[in-house]
Each structure stands twice: as structure tokens, then as C-alpha cells.
Amino acid sequence: MIDSFHLHQPESLSDALTLLAEHSQEVKVLAGGSELILLLKMGLLAAKHIINLKKIPDLASLDYESSPRFLHIGPLVTHRALEKSEILHKYFPLLVEMEKQLANVRIRNVGTLAGNLAFAEPHADPGTLLVAYEASVTLTSVDGERTLSLQDFFIDFYETALASNEILSEISIPKPASSSKGAYLRFCPGERPMVGVALLSEWNEEICEKPRLVLGCVGPKPMRALELEDWMTGRSREDIQAEADSLGTKAALSCQPLEDISGSVEYKRQIVKTLVARAILRLTHEGIDHG
To answer: For the domain bounded by 57-174, which CATH number is listed?
Structure first.
């Protein structure tokens, strides 16, 4: 049972921001609602005011900017819309592959990417891949806008840099270089992934450039494996392939998974090792193209 609340349905972003500023700590913002409604029903969240964004049409925009090459995603864009988008199929195929695996069709039809990121659920797919894509978010309040890298947006378990008077108004993703390839692998024995691994890299013929290896679901927020990225930079495909198992082991030791009902720390690290090794082999053999 959800406690009673006052529902606001603004028809412009400025009106929504004014309401958010007025009600401060007593308010929650509703986009898709797949996370918020569940937490309200469970009594894990409470709100005296809910601001429904669904009547603001501009917030459902999904645009590709050709110069500079950026994908801009509004806060009402659902996972299903991303999964079916021709723009994503053409320019961001790895994002499509991730969206196809997320939850189930019912959730993807309702849930939004912005809502997923704003809740900072540690066992989620999008944040892991979008950190590898070097995505950023725009946070808007009555005082103006600010932009943060997604990596800086995530703070801790269920905690972000989003202030109480701000709305996550846009997600921006730079298009990878045409020489880029990528892989996203996950281990999901239940409703949510236990481990996610995202790997993107540019290639200068057979030489690896600008690799981004991100480990998800094994800490408070997605984590870039910077030491491994440094090692891979400037290496040939053959060198990287030969060290896939060793790199998987190093990645497993670098993360801090929690023991829970899904498994022990040692078990989760073994999954990390396996997925990182597989992601490296997939990237260096056939990886998903971004040309």
C-alpha cells in the first residue's frame, strides 16, 4: 500500500522545476515509474508530493547530433524506445544489445534510462556500459544547468550527485570512432545482473587505442579498470588475446563485490575473471563495430 500523496502533472520543464524547488525533500519525480512505484509500495521511499513528467512532450526526445557526433536522450525515453531506435542500431549497436537483455519487455516498455541512472541501483546494466561510452548527464534546476560525466554522477550505493532540486534532463553519449569495437557481457542468474563487463576500444590497424574496461555490479558504482586499460593501450590484438586470462584475474582482484544471497566474494570474482577474459577475446576477434 502506498501512502497518500499529492500528484502534480506539469506541462513544461520550468513548471516541474518550480514545483521541485517548492517542495524540496518531500517530493519525488516520476518518469517511467518502474523503480519509484516499487519502492513506494515496499515502504522504502515516501513522498508527500510526486511530480509526473509524462505530460512534458519535449522530455521524450531522442536525437542524434552529427557535428559533433552525440546522441541526446531525454528523461522520458524508455528502454524499449532505445532498443527499437534506428539511430541506435546504426550508431550505437552495443547499446541496443544491452537494452535487449535488460529486465523484460514489460519493464522496458515503461522504465526509462534516466530513471534507471537516477536510482543508481548497483545491480543494473545501463550504468556499466554508459561509463564505457563516456556518457554525461545534464542536471537542471531553477538555478540553471550543470553537466557531469556519468562516472562522476554516481557516488555510492543508490546515491548520485543529483541535488534535491534537480532533474536529470538529458543523457549525452559521444559516438565512438569508426574504428571502435565493443563487447558487453553480463551474468544474470535472477532478476538483476550479478556482474556486468563493458569493453570498448579504438583500433589503429592491429593496435589497441583508448580502451575503456568497466566492471559493474561488483561495487557501489561502475568501476573503470584503469590499470588494465593502461596495459592494453598500444598493444597488439595478439598480445591482448594471449593475456586474456591474466587480465581477467587482475580485474577480479581489483573489484570489491559484496557477499550476499547471490554468492560469495570469491564466487563473484570468479565470474568477473571469466567475463573479462571473454569480453577481451570477443573484442579482439569480432567485437561489435561502431562504424
So the answer is: 3.30.465.10
